[in-house]
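Below is the data:
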Amino acid sequence: MLPAYMIIRDELKKQVDERKWSVGDRLPSERDLAEAFGVSRMTLRQAVTLLVDEGVLERRVGSGTYVASRRVQEKMRGTTSFTEIVTSQGRLPSSRLISYQRKVASETECQQLGLSAGEQVIRMERVRYADNLPLVYEVASIPEKLIKGVDRKDITEHFFQTLTANGYAIGKSQQTIYAKTASERVASYLDVTKGHAILALTQVSYFTDGQPFEYVRSQYVGDRFEFYLENK
């Protein structure tokens, strides 16, 4: 026979799946749930902790336990735009542009994008959303010579589609992922508290001929986004 906390875990999961509570809803207090199930608060807390670990529920310090939003997933294979990732999962992508500047490429940007010292990049800073929920803060650098004459809106809103429409063939990308915590500034953009868990990603994307065309530094909200690997 399953332990009591596992039975409660399964029942709570069933209630979430059956939409007794919607995404973002606050669950009753642990005391009320424990009384409803006829168990101790410790047993109830074990069940809730399992669901938090599984991403079904989320705890908010000083506020309570809530039904977690479904995480957006990115398969770590090939090169796919944020818009394509979010749209493929039935959610509405959008973005807010924070800054858009023409700058002399930094040493790192030169290395990552194969540029010579003194060459220019377009550096844009933005927040990306899925169904109006902020998922990622990113800074993208693009060789300025690559997008001369291209409308700014086409770059900021659907860059990959614009490249494809202009005859470029998008190839592989190289990604590095690591854990960090949100700074006060980034936290304010992502609607989380300072120190919140962040999945940081650096990515260089290439055309099929091997030419790098974009260098991105992204910070994803850890409990709203996940990466997964697929091996063949």
In short: The chain has seven helices and ten strands. The chain has two domains: 4-67, 72-228.
